[in-house]
Amino acid sequence: MATPRTSSQERFAQFKLVLLGESFVGKSSLVTRFVKDEFLEQRESTIGAAFLTQTVSLEDNKTVRFEIWDTAGQERYKSLAPMYYRNANCAVVVYDITQASSLERSKAWVKELQHRAADGIIIGLAGNKLDLEDKREVPTEEARAYAEEAGLLFFETSALTGENVLELFTEIARKVPFENSTARPRMSAKGVDLNKNGGTEAQGCNC
Amino acid sequence: MEDGAKDDYIKDIYRHASPNADTDSFLGSPTVAIDSTLSTSNSLSNLNLDTNDSSSSPPAHNDDVPDIAEVLQEMLATTELPSSTTDLDYEPELDLVGGHRRNLGQLNDYGSPRADSFVSLDPPSIGTEVEQFLSKKKQFFILSSAGKPIYTLHGSDDVILGYLGVLQTVVSAYQADESGDNLMSFRAGKTLVVVAVEGPLILAAVSKIGESESQLRAQLDVLYTQILSTLTKNQIHRIYANQSNFDLRNLLQGTDVYLDALTREIVNGSPSILLGALEPLILRKSIREEIDGVLLSCRTPSLLYGLIVSDSKLANVIRPKKHSLHPPDLILLFSMLFNTTSFRDGEHWVPICLPKFNSTGFLYAYIHFFSKSSALIQISADKNAFFELREAKQQILSQMEDKGLIKALERAEERGRFKPVDVAVPMVRHFLYKSRAHVQYVMPSYETHYYEPHMQRGLLTFYHQLHAQVNSDSSRGSNNGWRFMHLVRNSCIGFAWITPSFELYCVSGPNVSRATLAASIHSIAKWVSQHRERLFVIGGAVF
Questions:
Q1: What pLDDT sits at residue B357?
Q2: Contact assignment for A197 to B235 by CB distance below 8 Å
Q3: Using one digit for the tens of pLDDT, what is the confidence trace for B72-91?
């Protein structure tokens, strides 16, 4: 539910967002640019997942707070992904414009999200590393055509320069219906599915 | 090689019935000194390197095995390599290159792209890269039993693949002779090679800096623990049961930084890894108890362990009555947190196997750095517990803030270790004190005598020697666990005192009498005992 503030027209909503994509396409770098407006030249691979939050202000006095799961791209974490996208309102699937194979991996993620994530999930496709134009392998038009066909928002981004990063997240914030917003953080904490995979515990391997 | 027994190249080949035997049981193991007369080239061909699958090749004759071992360690021990103009004088080396390539042929059959790129280097160049590799004083190799590289400290694939092939062949030759033995270690001059076979993985450490076999074995165990923490023992066994030539690097992708961090610590002489113990944060007893109280009061149902760690030093731990935490697991976890930048921002939810707790399954760690160098770690068996633990974190931090405990932690961290003068033993420059009951160690700061990094490194090397000597087979007598060692060098004197409750290693300047040192060592033990509640995390808070 949207949780409108009491004051006149101000509206506040909180969305859960998950980042998916192959390893080394720059998911963590995109989030770091969005959340802290920083870029680390040497970044270590994410293991498991990192959880971050960031707020964006929209027109009409709307404020959106993102709760972001920045997931690890490695194959060994694949089986954990449903845990992160299960309750997500929106997702950013990232590929690297200099690696054609990473777009193929993105398509698989999109398919999985469309089949298994919540209905109405807003998916953005981000072709990252736009600053490496001279090494481009994925033509913009090809990716855009795919995105349109699959019903995705589409941006080419550069976490290094910051190009289109805020635009990507802002556009997603505009597209997610306010009614779909998760309730207050405290409530959402309880809302995480504790039953679906209950009892797997230490056996819940991520092979 | 007739005078091999006097020669540096004489080898002791240790063979052992149990692959996991600890050093204690080493006492009874047979030691075979081999005097080899075969040339290295012969020994290579004896090993059937050119068959398609050396691991399934017929068992090598026992008589030949030592020669292969000799070849391998000669390769590892050699620092001077033939220049290209003297190739003919170094036939054995050239033949090794041949072995190299044949072995690569196998790897190639398994479809490794890296092997592909290597084969095109024909012949493999013996140049500066190899020289650099061979000049390293310390090496670690992790490979699969099919000879596939998993991790190496030094050397690119081009350089190491041949060595790994030989190593794998030697190890499998021992396994193939039906005695159920595994190769444990061998020595060439000052170079010691220690091998650990862990299921489908082979780990090897090569040291030219005088570490003991048990020290190197402990180091290998730390690296193996890291690999298990990512994949679990079950997964590794399952993977190789399905596909014996699997390239494990695919699955370990991204974890090199953690293995690198551990090997860096090992190479730097980490006292924590030497002693297999944690360093606690020195904290007033009342502060530690207050923090324990906060952690306990905010505990949620899914919590298994809760820890607060400052700059790799354990400040607090809460745990269930039934379970204790295992220092090797924590050494690993702390190294991941504090020797890399991965976790510095935000909150993290990480599946991790703590192998000494349970090597077959995953736990989930909630990790959050609440200051520049202090982290809260909450470990749960429930993979869906993130938000529950996140909420607990918010309560823990706000309570700690209210009670001034975060500031107290910061102050403790700033104060750091105690100073040698605090202990009032003026002749002692530095010491390591390990409480065996708590599996924790304390030491004074390096300042005064060891402010330069190279001095610290020298000190730690000396501790390794002292530790090796006092824990060597010959000094492990009956004495009910009491041992004593006095080691005199030109520049310093070392003193080790092992009792059932503690291990104490101390270093003084030269020309200090034994009596003075003995008195000092008693003072240290007494001082530590008096301050134990401030120095150590005693048991942690139990729920």
A1: 92
A2: no
A3: 344 343 333 333 333 322 22
What was the ipTM of the complex prediction? 0.82
Has residue B133 got a pLDDT over 60? yes
Would you tell me how many other CB atoms lie within 10 Å of the CB of residue A111?
11
Is there a contact between B382 and A201 if contact means CB atoms under 8 Å apart? Answer: yes
Question: Smallest Cβ distance to A207: which of B235, B340, B346?
Answer: B235
What fold does the segment set B285-416 form as a domain? Beta-Lactamase (3.30.450)
CA distances from A45 to A22, B151, B342 (A): 11, 17, 7
- Closest by CA position to B95, among listed B76, B123, B129, B136: B123
| Closest CB from B235, B348, B383 relative to A204 | B383
Residue intervals in chain B for CATH 3.30.450.30 = 11-208, 285-416, 420-535
Q: CB A76 to CB B231 under 8 A?
A: yes
Topology classification of domain B11-208? Beta-Lactamase (3.30.450)
Show Cβ contacts of residue B188 under 8 Å, excluding neighbours closer than 6 positions.
Answer: B8, B9, B11, B70, B73, B74, B76, B77
Gap between the Cα atoms of B47 and B98, Å rounded: 13
The CATH code of the domain at A11-187 is 3.40.50.300
Beta pairing partners, B205: B140, B194
Q: Which of residues 354-413 of B touch A (CB under 8 A)?
A: 358, 360-365, 381-384, 386-388, 390-391
List chain B residues with CB under 8 Å of A32. 345
Q: Which CATH architecture has domain B420-535?
A: 2-Layer Sandwich (3.30)
Q: Residues with Cβ < 8 Å from B348, sequence gap 6 or more?
A: A48, A49, A50, A51, B342, B365, B366, B367, B368
Which of the two residues, A86 and B28, has the higher pLDDT score?
A: A86
As separate numbers, helices (DSSP H) first and strands (DSSP E) second, chain A gives 6, 6
Neighbours of B26 (CB within 10 A): 17
Q: Which of B340, B365, B390 sits opposite A189 (nearest CB)?
A: B390
Question: With contacts defined as CB-CB under 8 Å, which chain B residues touch A44?
Answer: 254, 257, 340-342
Query: What stretch of H or E contains B98?
Result: helix B91-109
Beta-carbon pairs below 8 A across chains A and B: 108
Work out the average pLDDT over B314-326. 91
Nearest Cβ partner for A80 among B345, B351, B382: B351
The tens digit of pLDDT for each residue in B411-461 reads 999 999 998 888 988 889 999 999 999 999 999 999 878 988 889 999 999
CB contact under 8 A, B342 and A44: yes
More confidently predicted of B464 and A190: B464
Domain ranges for chain A: 11-187
pLDDT tens digits, B277-287: 999 999 999 99
To the nearest whole Å, the CA of B236 is away from the closest chain A CA by 10
- The answer for residues whose C-beta is within 8 angstroms of residue B6's C-beta and 6 or more apart is none
